[in-house]
Amino acid sequence: MLVSFPCLATAMVLLQPAAGAGPLVDLREASAGRQAPARTAQRSTTGSVLRLGIWGLGYNLALAAITNTKGTDAAAQLSEKLFAKAKELGEALEVPIPALPAGKTKKPAERQGDAMQYLLSGAGKEISRQLLRKHGADHAALFDLAVRCQLLTLLYLPGDDFTQTLKAAIEKFGLQSGLPDELWRPLAAKIEAGITFSDMVSETQATSRRIAEHLGASPATRAPPAGDADGLAHEVRRLNAEIATLEHELRTQSIILSEQVLAARRSGIDRKRRDRDAAVDKLKILCTTRPASACDALTEKR
Fold it and tell me: How far apart (Å, rounded) are the C-alpha atoms in residues 131 and 272?
């Protein structure tokens, strides 16, 4: 059975991210006569706007619930923004999104328990059930995988029984989602290896980036076209996209990352800015002697 999505015309996915994150992906194109693929066409849906939207829903909703456990005004404001993005995606996908649990006055352990219940046995379970009914097991698994990945940033503890439960769930939903193994298996391997919590946060975000890019969130990652000017223009645009993604992750993760990790992230962004500026300088030289459409990259917002 084929299903259309008229309300996708007004929705925008913000990924990598996602949780109110990363480069914008315009979902309006999904309303221009496109239809969702049949339930049985599991792997043929890779890269579709629908699957990208479902991944973004799980990512945004989980990060909103996790941020909501911090109990500060800044965390509450960020959680509201992330939840608004999740709710927008839910409306686009015609899936109701229940309100986050209230928790500012509760103890930290109670807030974490509420977030787990909300994502695993409350709202998250019902959303997954509706996605299964509307779009099939592979689409529901994308949502479930996104939620479990983000829960690692709250609950990961090397060798812990619940961490192993999350690892098993990531492997299960990774297989069911139809995503290539190389997108999610490295994360499961890092859990098995017992890396530190800070490293796990970084690995979780790297996994989310890989999956979002695979589903179509970052067209700037395609191979550069031939030609010096075109190649440099592609490099400038690619670096701009990566910088925007990393800056968004820095903003959304600043509450849960240590100062050491934040400093390393800022240093990485600075390196990419220098690489971008060097590519811009080379492109400027080329454009003074050989005007081309690639030179438009010089005037794009950075």
Answer: 38
